[in-house]
Amino acid sequence: MKILVIGAGGFTGSYLFRLLSEKYEVIGTSTHNKSFEKLELSQFNETYKKLKKISPDVIYLPAGITNMDYIENNPMNTRKINVLGAANIVNYCKESNCRMVFFSSDAIFDGKSGPYSENSNPNPISEYGRQKLEAENFVKKLKNSLIIRTSSLYGWDNRNLNFISRLIGSLKSNMEFKAPTNQFYTPTYVVDLAYAALKLLEKDLAGTYNIAGPDFMSRHQIALNFCKVFGFKKELVAPVKSPQLGQTAKRPQYAGLINKKAEKELGIKFRSLKEGLKDMLKNQNFNGVK
């Protein structure tokens, strides 16, 4: 089985590539990491040609723009990548009978009553959420496609693009870190996400699955847990409300995902935030991050 990971140089993609490569022939693409073949999702014709040349059996698509404020300010340019780029992959998969695994987010919900199940009705309040939902709807047209929704991913990240990585950077510099008390998620360890993404494929499952940790907590609570496990000063974490952060895109207040379906069908338990952070502490050199 030949697997293509689009976005193998990114946060989620790097973990996927490493894990999948232990068992399968895996090819990775990236927009910035020169270790992989370059692929720009916004260049539809070039992407299609490269996919035909590689001819994968399965395509994992964790790639895309995830900066919510940037997306809110640049809806047309980012939609070309996050929505139309994904739709282009869908069209290839239809033509070639290739399986597709698409990564989505709890941002497709309005955050009024989270955490959410796979059957909850989406109602995005940000451009990022709207783009993810539109891309999901394209992917659902494929037979045997997989949509993996996740929430507040954390783990070691060379590019410092996730919440915990940004927190580490601030605390190491002895700088105050503002963490909202009114944004709730189900923090998910990226290592568990990659493992679940592999198992879903090996069990030949299709449809939509929530891959998320068991804890439902605010960004502020997440940051305090990190300080406790890693030994940083909790006084550096400043509790704030969302308006104080000056964020352009609206954030769901009660987001997060219910993972019961995935845990039952995969026969696994996703790690709590405390367990995930302890594993991070134990494995500090992953991807060269120290």
List keywords for this structure.
Rossmann fold, two-stranded parallel ribbon, 39% helix, 7-stranded parallel sheet, alpha/beta
What does this entry show, briefly?
By secondary structure, the chain is α/β, with parallel strands linked by helices. Helix content is 39%, strand content 17%. It has one domain: 3-Layer(aba) Sandwich (Rossmann fold).
What features would you describe in this structure?
The protein has a single domain, classed as Rossmann fold. Helix 9 crosses helix 11. It is an alpha/beta fold and 290 residues long. The protein contains 11 helices and 13 strands. It has a 7-stranded parallel beta sheet, sandwiched between helices. The C terminus is likely disordered. It is globular and about 55 Å long. Helix 1 links the parallel strand 1 and strand 2. Helices cover 39% and strands 17% of the residues.
